[in-house]
Design goal:
The complex is a heterodimer.
Chain A lengths: L3 E7 L2 E7 L5 H8 L18 E4 L2 E4 L11 E4 L12 H8 L9 H14 L5 H7 L11 H15 L1
Helix pairs in contact in A: 2-5
Chain B lengths: L23 H6 L14 E7 L5 E7 L1 H5 L3 E5 L14 H6 L4 E2 L5 E7 L2 H8 L3 E6 L6 H5 L23 E9 L2 H6 L3 E9 L11 E6 L5 E5 L4 H12 L6 E5 L15 H11 L3 E4 L2 H7 L5 E10 L5 E11 L7 H8 L9 E8 L14 H18 L4 H8 L18 H10 L1 H4 L6 E10 L4 E9 L5 E5 L7 H13 L6 E5 L16 H28 L6 E4 L2 E4 L10 E2 H6 L8 E9 L5 E11 L6 E11 L6 H20 L30 E6 L20 H14 L10 H14 L1
Parallel strand pairs in B: 1-12, 10-11, 14-15, 18-19, 25-26
Antiparallel strand pairs in B: 1-5, 2-4, 2-6, 3-5, 7-15, 8-13, 9-10, 9-12, 13-14, 16-24, 17-18, 17-23, 20-21, 21-22, 24-25
Classes of the chains: A alpha+beta, B alpha+beta.
């Protein structure tokens, strides 16, 4: 089967690619575009390491076909900081030592950003339930939750 | 002064602070390169064909159709490895690729390298394997019976007692004192049988590597691993290479917890690269990680403990039966050694049997062997306390191992922090906080030996006076920050003047794997010694400039100064000044240290767990959790806390939900994160860490490893909490909702 021509906007840039019909958006991001900040932990939508936003909606990119992304706007971890300036969530993750191995971190940051856009003042429980789809095996989540709550506070000003 | 020149009484400036980690920004921006993140020109993608049978003879493998597929560049089977070595293939190789038999569901039988993942996947379907299916066994007790199918012949050691099948490969025994006399002196004896299922380390990053091998026998290998020197040793042996010809570079590592201390796919990628003449990337799927990489052992254990009515343990005995898959391992030995480590006992005996089954070869997982054994012992101690109406913390303090205790596994303990840790738990508000209906509180001690081992560090003083530390242990939890802190502390400079990197296998001598909670201890020790060597050289350079004797110079606050008034009057010469002149005073300055580090210092911890059991569903919620652990000296307290919290949550997962579920067909039923359920954020409360600091005499700053002990106590702490909340004594993990519910129903029915 021939490849499909897809036009997208990724982190603000117009990007076009060709993909096999069965290729996932995660495979495209990583293998074709080399945006490897988006990680593959399971390939079945269970771990959240491949979290991105697709037209503003938080999704697991392993559950989206590359072909589905035509004419869409995609945000990945690579688009989160602004030049030298880290997003408050990124800075708070460093301040709170909220990562150990760091492989789940991009997905958790993308998911947390999506939460704070919808709910700038979440409770601890709301953060825990929102991030329940993002597995972290190193930290026990404690410092992650504290970092997100602290970032939310700072962003509210 | 002691031979180690210990300085843990001094006031630290950098140690104990919480600076940002050097790899932090890369990791929060997605720039950090993990095992699967490297792409090189002309690279192929590899996929593995795995056996669907738990035990089967491989009659033939026909790869011809796969080889014909457009875009396929190489296909290999075990036959491709026979040309590298005339020796009998090692267990490691046979685990990487099945030779005569497939030994477990998911055992690799062939592999393909192709232009894309899609083509490689299609090619797997064209490989035709003819199997002769053999009877299988996956349960430890079944596998020990004389009529069990035999998994793998020829492994039984001489000291194994008679009366078992050939699957029982090794036997261990530890202890001292008169057990019969001890039990005779007890007012109450509790004896129970326990079972635990295998848990997977569950690192979020699947195994991944990229290999490039040339026909002249040279190769480069990039992979995620806890120990690239071990990867080199194992792969060089399998590939018939000299170590110097194989350079292994570790990527960032997305979690390991012991599971990345060995190899699974690296020889496959090397052989495919050699055969195809191109670089080959091989990344496991999650399904493959569950089926074919190391989970823990599963266990079946009998524990018998006697206690007087005022709470003195008179005797303890444990029989441990561990299965660790289709190849022998020594994990049960560590279980038998650690079972009673927290206690000062007159009479103690532990026995352990290792058993082969048709399951994947177990790999280390945080304190391997200890969580199971200590879960069983600590559950019985709690039951004795409950039945004798004694305070479980007081009883543990009363019987606690301390300096001078002859441990249950032989050695006599030096300074240990168990009693201080127990007392900290006793004084903590958590211990006396009220509980509501359906809630229970459990506690458990934990123990781990900690290791040192072969370690090399080079510390370079750059011309501008900044420091480059080169070490050889992959950083799995912030160790680069801790190593930089120790270098800065010793040199008397600020943290931001030091950058620590992890070198490839050609840049340093052999470094033991990042395991055994050894890195902050052993690499830290070598870094301090390397810094001292550099300081000695810098003092010498200052003496040359000042024209005074080398011994008349000493080091203080990042500068060389005259040692005393008789040495002469000179202004302090800073590290920057000495470095800037180094080219004129003898050349670049460096310090290095190579050691087989001893004196790691054992580690103890105590956990308090409060749970609430939903009696309608059998579901258990952890509502409060506190970890008390002796860190010796916390170099970077945030990462020490992180080890304590992370290990505790892994143990909570093991206690409540995580388990390998095998069907009657010997196939793994839950090879994915949906059905193998690790804890998620909404399952948990905050995990409060309480760091104790009882210095380890074996480290200049008093460091003890902290990485592993934290996974040990949760199994019994949760079991004891659930048992107290429901008034039912549970003896099988995990305490998953169906299991708890059926016990609750049975209790209700039995009245």
């Amino acid at each position: 089967m021939s490849q499909v021509h897809i036009k997208t906007k990724i982190n603000g840039d117009n990007i076009e690619f060709l993909c096999d019909p069965e290729e996932t958006l995660l495979d495209i991001l990583r293998d074709k575009l080399h945006l490897t900040g988006t990680k593959e932990g399971c390939g079945t939508g269970d771990c959240g390491a491949c979290s991105i936003t697709l037209d503003g909606k938080l999704v697991c990119s392993c559950l989206v076909l590359g072909a589905e992304a035509d004419n869409s706007e995609i945000s990945t971890i690579e688009g989160m900081s602004n030049g030298e300036k880290l997003h408050p969530l990124q800075q708070k993750f460093l301040d709170h030592a909220a990562l150990q191995c760091g492989v789940c971190t991009p997905g958790i940051l993308v998911a947390a950003k999506s939460l704070l856009e919808k709910n700038p003042d979440p409770t601890e429980s709301e953060v825990r339930y929102w991030l329940a789809g993002n597995l972290c095996r190193c930290t026990g989540y404690d410092k992650i939750i504290k970092a997100v709550l602290d970032a939310a506070k700072e962003m509210r000003g | 002064m002691s031979p180690l020149d210990n300085t843990y009484e001094k006031q630290f400036k950098v140690i104990g602070t919480r600076p940002p980690r050097p790899d932090g920004i890369e990791k929060v921006t997605g720039k950090a390169q993990y095992g699967a993140d490297l792409y090189v020109p002309d690279m192929l993608y590899a996929k593995i064909l795995r056996s669907p049978h738990p035990h089967a003879k491989i009659i033939s493998i026909d790869t011809s159709e796969a080889e014909k597929l457009d875009g396929v560049k190489a296909v290999i089977t075990s036959k491709d490895f026979s040309k590298f070595s005339e020796n009998k293939p090692s267990d490691t190789l046979v685990n990487c690729i099945a030779h005569e038999k497939a030994l477990y569901d998911g055992h690799c039988v062939a592999a393909v390298a192709a232009l894309s993942n899609t083509i490689a996947k299609s090619a797997l379907k064209l490989i035709n394997v003819e199997y002769e299916i053999l009877p299988h066994v996956t349960d430890v007790d079944e596998a020990m019976k004389t009529d069990s199918p035999i998994v793998n012949k020829g492994y039984v050691l001489e000291n194994v007692p008679k009366g078992f099948s050939e699957n029982v490969t090794s036997y261990y025994e530890f202890g001292h004192g008169d057990l019969d006399n001890g039990f005779n002196n007890a007012d109450l004896i509790v004896e129970r049988t326990f079972k635990t299922e295998a848990a997977h380390q569950g690192y979020i990053e699947p195994h991944a590597c990229l290999a490039s091998m040339t026909p002249d026998g040279k190769a480069d290998l990039w992979c995620c691993t806890q120990g690239h020197y071990n990867v080199r040793a194992l792969c060089a042996d399998i590939m018939g290479m000299e170590s110097s010809q194989l350079r292994v570079t570790p990527s960032e590592i997305g979690g390991g917890f012991g599971g990345k201390t060995t190899i699974f796919i690296e020889p496959i990628a090397l052989a495919l690269s050699l055969k195809s003449g191109k670089p080959v990337k091989l990344v496991m799927t999650r399904d493959e990680v569950f089926k074919a990489t190391g989970p823990t052992v599963s266990s079946s254990m009998d524990v018998k403990i006697g206690m007087t009515k005022d709470g003195i343990i008179t005797a303890g005995e444990a029989h441990l039966r561990y299965q660790g898959g289709a190849f022998p391992n020594g994990t049960v030995e560590m279980g038998a050694q650690s079972a009673f480590a927290a206690y000062d006992l007159k009479a103690v005996r532990t026995k352990g049997w290792n058993v082969l089954t048709n399951r994947p070869k177990q790999a280390a997982y945080r304190a391997p062997g200890a969580p199971q054994a200590i879960y069983a012992v600590e559950s019985v101690v709690d039951e004795l306390c409950q039945k004798l109406n004694l305070d479980p913390l007081e009883i543990r303090i009363k019987n606690a191992a301390k300096k001078g205790t002859k441990s249950s596994y032989g050695p006599t303990f030096d300074d240990i922090g168990l009693i201080a840790t127990l007392e900290a738990a006793q004084k903590h508000p958590h211990y006396l906080a009220p509980l509501a209906e359906n809630q229970g509180r459990g506690l458990s001690c934990g123990f781990w030996f900690n290791f040192g081992g072969d370690t090399c560090v080079t510390l370079n003083v750059n011309f501008d006076g900044t420091i480059g530390v080169t070490e050889g242990n992959p950083d799995i939890g912030g160790s680069r920050a801790s190593i930089s802190q120790m270098a800065a502390e010793e040199l008397g400079i600020s943290y931001d003047k030091v950058r620590t990197i992890i070198a490839d296998t050609n840049s340093l001598g052999h470094n033991e794997v990042t395991d055994g909670s050894r890195v902050t201890f052993a690499v830290g020790l070598a870094t301090i010694k390397a810094a001292r060597a550099a300081i000695k050289e810098m003092c010498k350079r200052a003496s040359l400039i000042w024209g005074i004797d080398e011994d008349a110079v000493r080091w203080e606050n990042g500068s060389a100064i005259p040692a005393g008034p008789n040495a002469g009057q000179f202004d302090p010469m800073s590290i920057e000044e000495i470095a800037a002149l180094s080219s004129q005073t003898g050349g670049p300055i460096a310090g290095h240290h190579e050691v087989n580090a001893e004196g790691a210092g054992v580690s103890f911890g105590v956990h308090l767990a409060d749970v609430e059991v939903d009696k309608e569903t059998g579901s258990t919620k952890v509502i409060r959790y506190t970890v008390f652990q002796d860190a010796g000296k916390a170099i970077h307290p945030s990462y020490v806390e992180g080890q304590m919290q992370g290990g505790a949550v892994q143990g909570i997962g093991w206690a409540l939900n995580e388990e390998y579920i095998y069907g009657k067909d010997g196939r793994l039923q839950n090879a994915g994160f949906l059905d193998y359920r690790i804890p998620v954020a909404s399952d948990l409360p905050m995990i409060e860490p309480v760091i104790l600091e009882i210095p380890n005499p074996g480290h200049p700053y008093g460091v003890r490893g902290v990485g592993e002990t934290s996974i040990v106590p949760p199994l019994a702490a949760i079991n004891n909490a659930v048992s107290r909340a429901t008034n039912i004594r549970f003896s099988e993990l995990p305490l998953s909702p169906p299991k708890v519910l059926s016990s609750l129903k049975k209790e209700l029915k039995d009245g």
